[in-house]
Write a structure and sequence with these properties.
This protein is α/β, with parallel strands linked by helices. The chain is 24% helix and 29% strand. The strands form 8 sheets. It has a 7-stranded antiparallel beta sheet with strand order 7-6-5-24-31-26-29. Strands 13-14-12-15-17-18-19 form a 7-stranded parallel beta sheet.
């Protein structure tokens, strides 16, 4: 085969691997085991449970082990093999429960006046939130348990009548200097959030760590430890709590000693706390080499069912680290993975894992500053320095707690917040293209400032059963008024159930975004693997835009939980 034919063959192969699907299969209720579990089963199959292992050893006539082989024949003896067990999480694979239809729209005028629509009807702010509270879905935990199982027990579960997802229990990896006030200045936390009294009031933030925070890390009036401090006061939770507390000083911090305990996270009833938990922040990750894990399934299902806005650390790259794929739960479809940028002076990626998961959904979705120094701290566990995605993740989470205190409309809408983040990344990351070679122009290429996320936005959402919202052509179409010569960015994002993702490692709905003006398409985003789409353009006319959101492939299983954000950079 000559060079031209080889090149053509490679191009055809690439096209087949990354071709946009026109069909997404309905959820098949069957058991699924992760790659790590399959590897364990394959290894165990080599040696049946009651088999023996043959070994050779030199012995004398009395059966004693001979130190020399002189005049001694090697004889074989057998050692009975102990049956191995594997620590696993077991959770059901089940169809998505149908939810009631609801749609919302939110705009803020230049003078700060807020306008609300519910199910396409203009409504007052008080009436909007009164209706939302009455129509809120009940808390839905994931059914799961942890067990130490043999290969035969795992096989029995996989072959049983109840479909399950089985994955190994993984060990969390913890990650881990600019004065924090300087970072606050560049991010506009001081000038635009705190100066306007947006400090996270009315917002609960859940975070989990191995250990507890020293009191230097938090304001006791806005901090609750949800369990016993069994692991003692540690540096990592102290630093995380400090970032959360300083960035959103009036948000209630709900701390849990036991980071990576997905069963505890899974059992959180957000509304049982006052204020309710609206955001979670996770400065740890499991390494899975990009494979979809039980933790990812639990997080995806929890977010899908309960609408918790969730930020997770992409993970840090060490000098000798070859595992560059984003960790779990950050790789989950519904989480917001946060990468780390060193400081406001260079605006460079430095620490973050960046490679996309095996499912090819693009990660991370957000990036933020990561080298913090808090002066005046001198306690036994911490000197005030913290860096990496362990820092950028709580910083981003707390930043959006401030946003939620300004715009309550965004609460319980992780799809909207992801669309907001993707549409508002303003400060370019200098080395983004060369650092994150997986993602071209779709990755987190910029850093949001507070003004870029809190002003000049228009929001819409659609929530309902799979059959809702789209017309007979599987489209949602509406218009937006715009000005000529203005830079706009529009993003949509939607949720996928963990059950579907665990089964197919794919979104359950493929939705595209097209922007038309004067009958001509001026921007479009049509990725095949992402649960989001982004367009970026500058208008050359003041004519209305036609926004076309098209569902081009649909499994027919999951509910529609779709958010839309338009931002203009004025």
């Amino acid at each position: 085969m000559n060079g031209n034919k080889i090149t053509l063959a490679l191009l055809l192969l690439a096209a087949s691997l990354f071709a946009k699907p026109t069909y997404l299969p309905p959820l098949e209720l069957k058991s699924v085991a992760s790659d790590d579990v399959r590897t364990f089963l394959e290894e165990e199959q080599k040696y049946p449970v009651n088999s023996a292992i043959k070994k050779k050893v030199a012995r004398d006539v009395l059966g004693r082990i001979k130190q020399t082989a002189e005049n001694v024949k090697d004889e074989a003896y057998y050692v009975m093999r102990h049956q191995k067990t594997l620590d696993v999480y077991v959770s059901p694979i089940s169809k998505s429960r149908e939810i009631k239809f609801i749609s919302g729209r939110y705009e803020v005028s230049k003078n700060g006046e807020k306008f609300y629509w519910l199910d396409d009807a203009r409504i007052s702010e008080e009436a909007y939130f009164d209706n939302i509270v009455k129509r809120r879905e009940n808390f839905v935990p994931e059914e799961l348990y942890r067990a130490s199982l043999t290969a035969s027990e795992i096989e029995a579960l996989l072959e049983g009548a109840e479909p399950v997802f089985i994955d190994i229990v993984r060990k969390p990896i913890r990650d881990s200097y600019t004065n924090y006030s300087v970072i606050f200045s560049y991010s506009e936390i001081s000038s635009h959030a705190h100066s306007n009294s947006y400090k996270g009031q009315g917002v609960g933030i859940y975070f989990d760590e191995d250990g507890c925070s020293d009191p230097v890390g938090y304001n006791s009036s806005y901090y609750q430890l949800l369990n016993t401090c069994t692991n003692g006061i540690q540096m990592h939770p102290t630093a995380v709590a400090k970032i959360l507390s300083e960035t959103a000083p009036m948000a209630m911090l709900y701390a849990h000693d036991g980071g990576g305990d997905v069963s505890y996270f899974n059992g959180l009833d957000m509304d049982s706390y006052n204020p309710s938990i609206e955001i979670s922040s996770h400065s740890w990750h499991y390494s899975s080499n990009g494979s979809y894990t039980s933790t990812a399934k639990i997080f995806d299902n929890y977010i899908y069912n309960n609408r918790l806005i969730t930020f997770a650390s992409a993970g840090n790259i060490k000098a000798t680290d070859t595992a560059t794929r984003v960790g779990s739960p950050a790789l989950a479809f519904n989480t917001i993975a946060v990468g780390a940028v060193d400081d406001p002076y260079s605006n460079n990626y430095e620490y973050s894992k960046w490679r996309n998961p095996v499912a090819h959904n693009q990660k991370p979705e957000a990036a933020n500053y990561a080298e913090f120094y808090f002066p005046g701290i001198n306690v036994s566990v911490w000197t005030g320095y913290v860096a990496g995605t362990s820092a950028s993740t709580p910083y981003t989470a707390a930043m959006y707690a401030d946003v939620l205190s300004q715009h309550s409309f965004l609460k319980r809408h992780p799809e909207l917040v992801k669309a907001l983040i993707l549409s508002s990344e303003k400060i370019p990351i200098a080395n983004a293209t060369t650092y994150d070679s997986d993602n071209g122009t779709k990755a987190a290429k910029g850093i949001s400032t507070y003004s870029s996320v809190a002003w000049n936005h228009r929001f819409r959402y659609w929530n309902g059963s799979n059959s809702c919202c789209f017309d007979n052509n599987d489209k949602i179409t509406f218009t937006e008024s715009v000005s000529s010569g203005v830079h706009y960015r529009i993003a949509i994002a939607w949720l996928t159930s963990g059950d579907y993702a665990a089964t197919y490692h794919s979104v359950s709905q493929d939705i595209d975004l097209r922007i038309k003006q004067n009958g001509v398409t001026i921007a479009s985003s049509t990725s095949a693997n992402n649960p989001f789409e982004i367009v970026d353009f500058t208008t050359t006319s003041g004519s209305d835009l036609t926004i076309e959101i098209e569902r081009c492939a649909n499994s027919g299983d999951d509910n529609v939980i779709l958010g839309y954000s338009l931002w203009n950079d004025l």
